[in-house]
Design brief:
alpha/beta, single chain, binds pyridoxal-5'-phosphate, 12 helices, 7-stranded mixed sheet
Length: 392
């Protein structure tokens, strides 16, 4: 449960999930590995409020992490999951039933869409995608059986920023639950629960872990009542996470703020440079003044991250290959939020249905890591020269 905030956010994060007095003054909470937990008596076993019952239901160690997450997101409490995607599917399944209608942002993380089009649709939930720029206009899409509005802001690949307060207002007017995938902000750059969203979902695999070596997810609830349903859902579905991952995530959280500040500053520098280069049709990064999402991003967010997407000018596959394969510091790899730079091709043709994707150039997502920025620019520059030579 979150405590009253007395200090600035950096200080609060350092002291969250932290209680040296409870363990001989040792700074970090001891990692607990547990399946079986013994009970002192039959009465204790039969007491539904007996605190630690079984590994999957939580331990003092997992509580350190969930309380740190609740504090980060200004929420009530959190559930943990073996991946960001598992946190998303668990959160959705905890609140919807057959016959319900759900509104999902068109720019969601593609595997979220695959879940909605797959298992969720198969169980009889009606899935409808909405334009992420819809704002208060979402009220026109709300039906009698709408059970959930699911946002992701900025969205995947193109970083469409949603007008969360306007959407929440429309949802509240009809008593509809709202959820947001807040992974882009890592819980740090935006506080959706402060703006009325009911549940914030995080892929802790990204900046919270921060070192490309864990898979972990979480969902944070705004209130005891919401948390109760979410926790029940997670328990029924068996959603939980391993201690090793949590230990690394707790460690990652301590440097989250400073790593993200650097990532944001470096990516803006590179995005601004990329904008001026020949061969690039468009740069997607909400901190860029030229980005159509800039105004809303500036209103709601207090920083950005290392994700920058580029749309190459239409060119042959050979030219695209020349660009991608001559980069030395941007290997092809999924995920983001780690220390190193990466590149991931994006194929949005089958991932946008509310507003079709019709751009002709090749779309690439760059994750700007903590290498020297000059080295990254030099690498991009030589690869762009090869691209431009090949396409003309
Ligand atoms: C990566 C990602 C996820 C999924 O997280 P995993 O931990 O990889 O399962 C969810 N949402 C967004 C926006 C992501 O980028």
């Amino acid at each position: 449960m979150s405590k009253k905030k007395q200090h600035g956010e950096d200080t609060n994060i350092l002291h969250s999930g932290y209680d040296p007095d409870s363990y001989h003054g040792i700074v970090n909470p001891p990692v607990v590995r547990a399946s079986t937990i013994l009970y002192p008596s039959l009465a204790a076993y039969e007491d539904p409020n007996h605190k630690y019952r079984y590994g999957r239901y939580g331990t003092p160690f997992t509580d350190s992490f969930t309380s740190a997450l609740a504090e980060l997101e200004n929420g009530h409490d959190a559930i943990i999951a073996p991946s960001g995607l598992a946190a998303i599917t668990t959160a959705i399944l905890s609140f919807v039933k057959s016959g319900d209608h759900v509104l999902i942002a068109d720019s969601v993380y593609p595997p979220t869409r695959f879940f909605c089009d797959g298992p969720l649709s198969r169980m009889g939930v009606e899935v409808e995608y909405y334009d992420p720029h819809i704002g208060g206009g979402i009220s026109k899409l709300i039906r009698k059986n709408t059970a959930l509005i699911y946002m992701e802001s900025p969205g995947s690949a193109t970083y469409d920023v949603q007008d969360v307060p306007a959407i929440v207002k429309a949802a509240k007017a009809r008593k509809i639950l709202t959820m947001i995938d807040n992974s882009w902000s890592s819980g740090l750059l935006y506080k959706p629960l402060d703006h009325g969203v009911d549940i914030s979902v995080l892929s802790c695999t990204k900046y919270i872990g921060g070192h490309s070596d864990i898979m972990l997810g979480a969902a944070v609830a705004n209130s005891p009542a919401t948390f109760k349903i979410l926790q029940k859902g997670a328990r029924e579905l068996g959603t939980f996470a391993g201690s090793e991952e949590i230990a690394l995530a707790l460690r990652g959280m301590k440097t989250l703020s400073i790593r993200m500040k650097e990532a944001g500053a470096r990516s803006l520098k590179i995005a601004s440079w990329l904008e001026k280069q020949k061969g690039i049709k468009r740069v997607y990064h909400p901190a860029l003044k030229s980005d159509p999402n800039h105004k809303l991003w500036k209103r709601d967010f207090n920083g950005s991250n290392g994700l920058v997407s580029i749309l190459l000018e239409p060119a042959s596959k050979k030219a695209v290959r020349a660009f991608v394969e001559s980069l030395k510091l941007f290997p092809i790899g999924s995920s983001w939020g780690g220390y190193e730079s990466l590149l991931q091709p994006q194929y949005l043709k089958n991932c946008r249905t509310a507003k079709l994707w019709s751009e002709e150039g090749f779309l690439i997502r760059l994750q700007i890591g903590l290498e020297n920025t000059e080295d990254l620019i030099a690498d991009l520059s030589q690869a762009l020269a090869k691209f431009n030579k090949e396409r003309t």
